[in-house]
Amino acid sequence: MEAGVNDGAGPDWLGWLPARILALDVEATGLRERDRIVSLGLVAVEAAALTGPAPPLRLCHLVFDPGRRSHARAEALHGYDDWTLRHQDPIDAHLPALAGLIEAADLVVAHNAAFDLGLLDRELARAGLPPLAVPRYCTWEAYRRRGEKGRESLAAVCARFGVARAGPRHGALEDAWLALRAYLWLQACPVDLPRLDGLTLPPANLRPVPPRPEGRLPPRSAGASVPVTVSGQ
Predict the structure, then answer these.
(1) CATH number for 178
(2) Which of 111, 134, 139, 232 could join 154 in a cystine, given CB atoms 3.0 to 4.6 angstroms apart?
């Protein structure tokens, strides 16, 4: 990992932060090993920029057809119904570019990193690609090591320093930003990252969806992950 550079002119915390930090969050169809990624958010920042008044953040927010229905609770959290997701890109087409973005960082941060990055590594394996080779930092594990009492969710950790989601939904991009905020707080870095307007906007690749047909949706074909068309649309 490339360490941050501190020539004595910057704050102490700049010396122990990695140079390029990337926070990641995924929303999924559920919590089991066979579940798939629904959406992904990335927020990248250079440590040296954190000393400025408005550190520039690089954002990536994508949605995918997971090829299966979401569990009811998962759908309630991420907000994408099966009809909408059937019309989105499969994740496979984006994986090489995503892996390149992620592996360009010196450190990847996530809340419950084993779950988020485990899901991503399984998607890479399905596509015949190698797992991510990048150092990882889990804000959930780091918070637990502090011996704090009470809940350890991302929302609970962020409440400790007065930051919250904009609404009840778990957006991947907003949660990646929150994970980055949690990481900086855990590193005693007193930087107040701005809440960008784009954090709650739809994913950049969200495709328009035709009107949903009446009745039950047809079952998905085994292994299919392609948009569904409706006769007469």
Answers:
(1) 3.30.420.10
(2) 111
pLDDT at position 29 is: 94
User: What is the CB-side half-sphere exposure of residue 91 using CA atoms within 13 A?
Assistant: 30
Instruction: Single out the residue of 68, 83, 23 nearest to residue 228, CA to CA.
Output: 83
Q: How far is 207 from 175, CA to CA, in rounded Å?
A: 22
- How many structural domains is the chain composed of? 1
For 185, the token pair is: 């707080």
- Looking at the domain assignment, is residue 221 inside a domain? no
CA distance 118 to 134: 13
Closest CA to 174 of 160, 191, 148, 154: 154
Tell whether 219 is covered by a domain. Answer: no
Which run of H or E residues covers position 136?
Answer: strand 136-138
Q: For 127-178, how does the pLDDT look when each residue is reduced to its tens digit (9 = 90+)?
A: 999 999 999 999 999 999 988 878 999 999 999 999 888 888 889 999 999 9
Residue 60 lies in a domain: yes
Altogether, the residues listed in the chain come to a count of 233
Can you tell me the distance from the alpha carbon of 47 to that of 4, in angstroms, rounded to the nearest whole number? Answer: 7
Could you tell me the pTM of the whole model? 0.87
**Pairing, β 37-46 against β 58-63:** antiparallel
